[in-house]
Amino acid sequence: MEPQVVDHLEKSRYEIFAGDDGTETAGFAEYHLSEGELAFIHTETEPRFAGRGLGGLLARGALDDARARGLRVLPYCPFIRGWIGKHPEYADLVPDARRAHFGL
Coiled-coil region(s) at which residues (predicted)? Predict the structure, then answer.
């Protein structure tokens, strides 16, 4: 089963589900949503799922959702910030005036 990224609004985090039956939480990206800005604060992948590219799928899924919802992104989380740095097509999600602050 393909990994699925889901926004759990009540937990303020995106989660990626994987495993044989696709029901195991393989990782998450915590955020704070305020006034049209999605501030990513922490991303974590379960050690047993490491090395499978799930962190990147999680970042892409969360950022694609932010784009679809018209949200601006503040990548305080080093993983999300680094991922955007490697995928400049997502840099436009970070407000122009804040990109230098995040090194983007």
Answer: none
Contact 62, 50 (CB under 8 A): no
93-102 in b/e form (b: 16+ CB < 10 A) is bbeeeeeeeb
**Sign of the C-alpha dihedral computed for residues 68, 78, 85 and 102 taken in this order:** positive
**pLDDT for the residue 22:** 77
Q: Where are the alpha helices (H) located in the chain, listed in sequence order?
A: 54-68, 78-86, 96-99
Could you tell me the two tokens for 28?
């998450």
Spatial distance between the Cα atoms of 67 and 58, rounded to a whole number of angstroms: 14
| CA 34 to each of CA 28, 38, 65, 72, 95: distance values in angstroms, whole numbers, following the listed order | 19, 7, 16, 10, 14
Q: Can you give the pLDDT at residue 2?
A: 86
Task: Please give the domain boundaries of the chain with CATH numbers for all domains.
Answer: 4-99 (3.40.630.30)
59 contacts 67 by C-beta, under 8 angstroms: no
